[in-house]
Design brief:
With 164 residues, this protein is an alpha/beta fold. The protein has helices at residues 10-22, 79-86, 104-113, 129-140, and strands spanning 33-37, 43-48, 95-100, 117-122, 144-147. Helix 3 packs parallel to helix 4.
Length: 164
């Protein structure tokens, strides 16, 4: 019997891991996941968007609109930064798989950490100043950007409609 040929590519496989990580996010609007993988295709770390350690997701706001201190934006740690901060070893030379293109703040952390390749899926904020700045910095730093589309999503019934 010949071997199966319709397997996932490595990029699809690790993007699936990013999607799985996103399922841990308690954000009611947007769940983002990230996976950091080394040159030997070993998973170094994963992350998702959520509040910092010790900050209860029952006590801090999840709102998207209102006064700054009443919204999630000043409190949430993005998936990319969580993955970098939770890595048990340096991530220099690694690839980060992320379901949503990194914001300018995450781009800085990605560059500083030495990650050399970003594989992403959604670029829904491409026209925003933050994403334009992010792409400019990543390009200047020589970080490779690879967009993949139509990746496999696990347990589709469990994933909310707005999951990235």
């Amino acid at each position: 019997m010949p071997k199966r040929k319709d397997t996932l590519s490595w990029d699809e496989y690790f993007m699936g891991l990013a999607h799985l990580s996103a399922l841990r996010s308690k954000d009611p609007n947007t769940q983002v996941g990230a996976a950091i993988v080394d040159q030997n295709r070993r998973v170094v770390s994963v992350g998702y968007n959520g509040f910092p350690k010790g900050c209860s997701d029952d006590e801090f706001p999840w709102e998207r609109e209102g006064k700054a201190l009443s919204t999630k934006y000043l409190y949430v740690v993005h998936a990319e930064l969580n993955a970098i901060l939770n890595a048990p070893r340096p991530v220099n030379g690694c690839t980060i798989y992320v379901s949503l293109f990194p914001c300018n703040e995450c781009a800085k952390a990605i560059i500083q950490s030495g990650i050399t390749r970003i594989v992403y899926e959604s670029d829904k904020y491409a026209e925003t100043d933050g994403t334009i700045a992010s792409k400019a910095m990543l390009e200047a730093a020589g970080v490779e950007l690879v967009r993949i589309e139509n990746t496999i999503r696990l347990n589709v019934e469990k994933i909310p409609n707005e999951t990235i």
